[in-house]
């Protein structure tokens, strides 16, 4: 009986690789890499997403909403369609930024927003300031924003137009970089 068992083991060892070769269809050395388009394309997408970030005390710091998010691992970033980023200030203020498109690196250090960028900053007092531009770099963790493009700022009866801007939503400061023009109308 041990001779039959030995023959069976030898047959399994000899036939195993052949059956595996037939079963897989190709030898391991013949396997190719996936097409380059699959290596460099998106690895996942999400629709109707909303992410929330909380501080150490459990208070809501920021939210990101987008109808579509496409992640690209080779670039270590996500492309956002119609993103909305809301920043919550420690003083109760709320800053909402929207755009046509956006790019968000995996480290989430900054959001690059393009196309009809609008920032609506609502202070805790209820006063609202609207900032309009075509491109904006937003740093959500530090609540800073900057652009080199034309920018329009609207607040109550005041309008400013400029080229370039840096803003701190936490400190409530706005620095216009060049070609600044302003208009203030008194209420009657």
TrEMBL record:
Component of the lipopolysaccharide transport and assembly complex. Interacts with LptA and the LptBFG transporter complex. GO terms for cellular component: outer membrane-bounded periplasmic space; plasma membrane. It is found in: Cell inner membrane. It is a single-pass membrane protein. It comes from Pontibacterium sinense. This is Lipopolysaccharide export system protein LptC. One of its GO terms (biological process) is Gram-negative-bacterium-type cell outer membrane assembly. Belongs to the LptC family. The keyword Translocase does not apply. The keyword Aminoacyl-tRNA synthetase does not apply. Keywords: Cell inner membrane, Cell membrane, Membrane, Transmembrane, Transmembrane helix. One of its GO terms (molecular function) is lipopolysaccharide transmembrane transporter activity. Involved in the assembly of lipopolysaccharide (LPS). Required for the translocation of LPS from the inner membrane to the outer membrane. Facilitates the transfer of LPS from the inner membrane to the periplasmic protein LptA. Could be a docking site for LptA.
């Amino acid at each position: 009986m041990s001779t039959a068992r030995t023959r069976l083991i030898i047959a399994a060892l000899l036939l195993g690789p052949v059956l595996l070769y037939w079963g897989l269809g190709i030898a391991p050395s013949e396997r190719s890499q996936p097409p380059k388009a699959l290596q460099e394309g998106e690895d996942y997408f999400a629709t109707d997403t909303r992410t929330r970030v909380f501080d150490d005390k459990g208070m809501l710091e920021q939210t990101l909403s987008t109808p579509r998010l496409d992640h690209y691992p080779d670039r270590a970033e996500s492309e956002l369609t119609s993103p909305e980023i809301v920043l919550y200030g420690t003083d109760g203020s709320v800053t909402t930024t929207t755009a046509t498109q956006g790019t968000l690196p995996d480290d989430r250090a900054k959001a690059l927003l393009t196309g009809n960028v609008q920032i609506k900053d609502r202070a805790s007092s209820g006063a609202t300031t609207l900032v309009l531009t075509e491109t904006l770099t937003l740093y959500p963790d530090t609540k800073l924003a900057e652009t080199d493009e034309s920018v329009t700022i609207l607040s109550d009866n005041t309008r400013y137009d400029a080229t370039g801007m840096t803003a701190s939503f936490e400190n409530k400061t706005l620095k216009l970089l060049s070609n600044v023009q302003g208009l203030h109308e008194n209420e009657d």
